[in-house]
Amino acid sequence: MFQRRVLCGIQPSSVPHIGNYLGAIKKWIDLQNSGDNLVVMLADLHAVTIPREPETLRKSVLETAASLIASGIDPKRSIIYRQSDLYHHTQLSWLLGTLTTVQKVGHIPTYKSKVKDESSIPLGLFLYPILQTADILLFKTTHLPIGEDQIPHLQLCTYMIEKFYHYYKKNIFPVPQMMATETNRIRSLRHPEQKMSKSDIEERSRIDIMDDEKIIQERVMKALTDFNAHVSYDREQRPGVSNLIDIYAGMTDQPIESIVAEAQKDNMNTGAFKKRLAQIIIEHFRPKRAEYLKLMNDRSYLLSILDNGRERAKEIADSTLNEVKDIMGFN
């Protein structure tokens, strides 16, 4: 009944780090190359649940777009666009907001984890899950490549679909299916008990995928491990070394057991393993970085790609929003 469509969303926070790449972007490219119908949304509205410096936001959108395209997202095969270019997101979010309650949204764990002071909750942060549901339903998304931390948001989306049907007796939205990724979550290079994050003030904690080769080499070599030079995998007892093995597995698609066995066969210590991993990362991203720099040096061309993506996304969004408004009595 519904055309298969995959929605991929990413907040524009400059160049994605290697954890973003292995956990999401690489999967999106595989889906695109296997023939899936992809919509790639630069979620700049979600990026301003609290205010951001305007110039930083503008620059981050372009850097994220250039990174995705350089990595393999093909604007001819997939739609890539800025969320804020379509008013449909916020209008549908408002309409869907009539179908749920403050209590329902307030129980979402990912929202609650970001609230530090319950007496001063940013409204944008509170409404974030409803806007996220609008993003999904606007394209009648059938599949979502998301992690387990997004399951509560998917459940809210399903709840709103059921509420819409209950009130209006129209089945116009597919219930989206989760496409779980098998990649282990990449951890901080300096604090492997934490996930890799752009919000970490210590830049050595991560590798951004368009970093130059010297930075990649330095950050891998200085990644925190332990006093045991033996290469083995144990996320509880040896989180630092295990994190590097996870990155190696993500970059090469090799099973973890095979990587460890190969390192032990070659009598490789952690220092030598780091050198090999750094070279793998550098060689993988070298052509992508060249393409990224080319795109960033041609701002007008990059903006034209996003403009074209907006028009293609708008065709779908116009149809969905008009259908919803007609059912609800606005047309």
UniProtKB/TrEMBL annotation:
GO terms for cellular component: mitochondrial matrix. Coiled coil: none annotated. Its main location: mitochondrion. One of its GO terms (molecular function) is tryptophan-tRNA ligase activity. This is tryptophan--tRNA ligase. It is an enzyme of class 6 (ligase). Keywords: Aminoacyl-tRNA synthetase, ATP-binding, Ligase, Nucleotide-binding, Protein biosynthesis. Its EC number is 6.1.1.2. It comes from Rotaria socialis. Belongs to the class-I aminoacyl-tRNA synthetase family. CDD domains: TrpRS_core. InterPro entries: aa-tRNA-synth_Ic, Rossmann-like_a/b/a_fold, Trp-tRNA-ligase, Trp-tRNA_synthetase. GO terms for biological process: mitochondrial tryptophanyl-tRNA aminoacylation. It is found in: Mitochondrion. It comes from the Eukaryota.
